[in-house]
Inverse folding.
């Protein structure tokens, strides 16, 4: 990932992601072909704060003040950790064009965070490694599945490393210290002592992916915040349920790379007992969609699950995409829920390019 400041304009592109893929709660993520694209314009140094313009998903609700927008707040965090007091004076405009719907389980916040880390890296000419970028992202979004897949692309598994007590404390500082209220009150200095991430918070590996497998995203027309969808989960699980998920996850990570893919194996391996059963209360139609659509009823279907924290449903398939999506639409309709659907490919990770 290159970052040069001699460019007058550059473009950052970050994909959507689907986390969990059934049993891999907070562990696996898949990058998908919807993007958050930032076009960054540099010019003559100016004391005026950079202007943010925005189009696409979330345009009616996203803050355009660089001190309040998630992406620019994260960029400022990265810059502050490297001795910069504020945005560079040469930063004139950031245009964000976003295809990733907010609060639907397609990793919009993870993409915004990764875009911010990459932006901070480029503006500060930091040349951070991907591993170090992940450390910064994990100080903001603390489950690694979405941000890792958005950063590196593909079908990815990740874990948070067990750090020594001092580093553990450093990695767990409250979010309000990582992304403080900006700007400071008049006369106050926000200083140059933001919480620096420890090194190596997250580790990841990319699994094989069979390119004939596509993702049908069935997207209900309502938002569900990740925070709300995590609140309904229990603190503890039975041994039986954990073994159920681990057995399936171990099979799934290899099964989705095999050629040809085995629908019987994958369908069962995408079942989950750790998060989906609890989230059905927030997503009417979820149990019906994940149980009534099968490879027998819809040839080409491989498996079906909740995408991230929901409410989007992800169907992995090699064929029959429209019939799968329309069948899911009918089930949601019975619950009074309208949906949109998109056929998506597995995408590359985040990138920076000259304009
Ligand atoms: N491009 C963006 N720019 C600024 N803020 C964003 C952007 N995208 C998302 N956000 C913020 O993230 C929030 C959505 O995050 P949330 O974690 O609830 O859902 P999600 O990331 O879409 O879903 P999931 O984490 O389940 O995949 C939005 O309401 C908004 O505040
Ligand atoms: N693993 C996370 C992904 C959502 O960001 C969850 O399911 O809550």
């Amino acid at each position: 990932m290159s970052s040069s400041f001699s460019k007058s304009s550059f473009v950052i592109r970050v994909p959507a992601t689907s986390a969990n893929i059934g049993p891999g709660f907070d562990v696996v993520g898949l990058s998908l072909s919807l993007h958050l694209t930032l076009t960054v314009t540099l010019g003559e140094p100016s004391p005026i704060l950079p202007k943010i313009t925005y189009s696409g998903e979330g345009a009616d609700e996203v803050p355009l003040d660089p001190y309040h927008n998630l992406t620019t707040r994260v960029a400022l965090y990265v810059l502050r950790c490297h001795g910069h007091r504020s945005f560079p004076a040469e930063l004139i405009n950031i245009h964000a064009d976003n295809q990733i719907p907010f609060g639907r389980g397609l990793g919009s916040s993870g993409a915004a965070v990764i875009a911010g880390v990459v932006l901070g890296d480029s503006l500060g000419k930091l040349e951070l490694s991907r591993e170090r970028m992940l450390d910064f992202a994990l100080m903001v979004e603390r489950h690694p599945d979405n941000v890792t897949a958005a950063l590196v692309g593909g079908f990815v598994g990740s874990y948070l490393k067990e750090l020594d007590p001092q580093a553990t404390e450093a990695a767990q500082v409250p979010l309000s210290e990582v992304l403080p209220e900006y700007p400071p009150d008049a006369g106050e200095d926000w200083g140059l002592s933001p919480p620096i991430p420890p090194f190596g918070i997250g580790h990841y590996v990319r699994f094989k992916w069979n390119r004939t497998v596509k993702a049908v995203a069935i997207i209900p027309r309502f938002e569900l915040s990740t925070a709300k969808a995590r609140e309904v989960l229990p603190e503890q699980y039975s041994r039986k349920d954990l073994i159920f998920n681990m057995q399936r996850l171990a099979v799934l990570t290899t099964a989705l790379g095999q050629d040809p893919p085995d629908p019987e194996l994958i369908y069962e391996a995408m079942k989950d007992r750790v998060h989906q059963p609890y989230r059905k209360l927030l997503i009417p139609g979820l149990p019906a969609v994940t149980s009534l659509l099968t490879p027998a009823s819809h040839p080409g279907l491989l498996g079906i699950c909740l995408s991230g924290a929901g409410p989007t449903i992800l169907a992995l398939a090699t064929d029959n995409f429209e019939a799968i999506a329309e069948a899911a639409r009918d089930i949601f309709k019975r619950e009074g829920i309208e949906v949109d659907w998109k056929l998506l490919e597995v995408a590359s990770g985040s990138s920076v390019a000259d304009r």
Observations:
- The pocket of adenosine-5'-triphosphate (ligand 1) is lined by residues 19, 36, 58, 62, 69-71, 96, 98, 102-110, 112, 146, 225-226, 308-309 (CB under 6 Å).
- The mean pLDDT is 94.
- The first helix runs from residue 70 to 80.
